[in-house]
Amino acid sequence: MMSKRALEKSDRNAARNGSTQRIRVGIVGCGEVTQIMHWPSLNQLAHLYEVTGLCDISERVLEALGAQWNVSALTTNHAELVKRSDVDVVLIANPNAFHAEAILAAINARKHVLVEKPMSVNRREAEQIAAAQKAAGVLVQVGYMRRYAPAFGDACAAVRRMRKIKFARVRDFIGSNSLIINRTSRVIRDENFSRRLLKETKQRDDELIEEAIGSDASEPLKTAYRLMLGLSSHDLSAMRELLGMPKKVLFAAQRANGRYLSAAFDYGSYVCQFETGIDSIPRFDAHLEVYGAEKIIRVQYDTPYVRNLPIRLFITESNDRGGVTQVVSHPAWGDPFVAEWEAFHENVTKKRLTKSGPTDFLQDLALFEEMAQLMRQS
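The structure assignment produced for this chain is given below.
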């Protein structure tokens, strides 16, 4: 973080300008996404945020990061963290199965929340969060950072200007994150503790997933649903913002024990094809593409685990001379995690609703449930 003197100067300048309010952040879950992406983003935005508390189930991780990040308020109990008077907002980045519990505790303490996707594992949890958020009047923002990238915003605007859509495609094939993380980042872990916790987390995760898609769901179907909650939630959430909610799911199937998925979404006058899978090639092949009769719009993503990689917009169209013109745009340098934290600050301080809130996430769950039902039949 910035030095104390620099922060005081920043605060004085902000006070004179009347434009900046620093927000105090408590973090629940200090694993790889927090260490690699969220902490550097908050450090970059030190004029907007100050991290005042950390919570993790591993005391070893807590002590190491507390010393490294100069944060003294450390706890293994999220209920203690969210009640702290020096915490204004809470980042929820613990395992998926424990998201809803931590979010509800933060809401009950009247704290705003930015939660890593998925917000919850099933509909019951999501509806509880939506109701609690409305009653408390706080903000809950789901961490769909891809939707906050400038190139994606430009893509949405370009699609709105298209005369007629003929076809669309959402694609996301990646190598396991560890193939990239292990060569580009240093992550403090507690391997012995992680192994002990794995069984408990898996059991709770299974119970919540069975509540969502049925107690008789096969292991491949559960794996497919986990993939929807994880990687695919980014893709399908972005699809909904780009194209709207589809009328229905025409087809969905899983193969390779749930690690490869395909689906087709009905948009009335056109179909959107979805395809995803996880392999052992260290690369990130993810894009959304919209086809018109005379124009193709494509937004291309790279791995989020290497900060500030360009997210690009491609627009391909006829040049009216019998040829083709392609414009490649990289609208602005910056990282989408930083962009989502900037949007979160704006939403909290100006009391604005977020585009990726609980009601929005419920639409993702509706798609996942419909896809899972069709996968039973495929």
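Interim note for the steering committee: Residues 147-332+360-377 form a domain with the Dihydrodipicolinate Reductase; domain 2 fold (CATH 3.30.360.10). Residues 296 and 316 are 5 Å apart (CA to CA).
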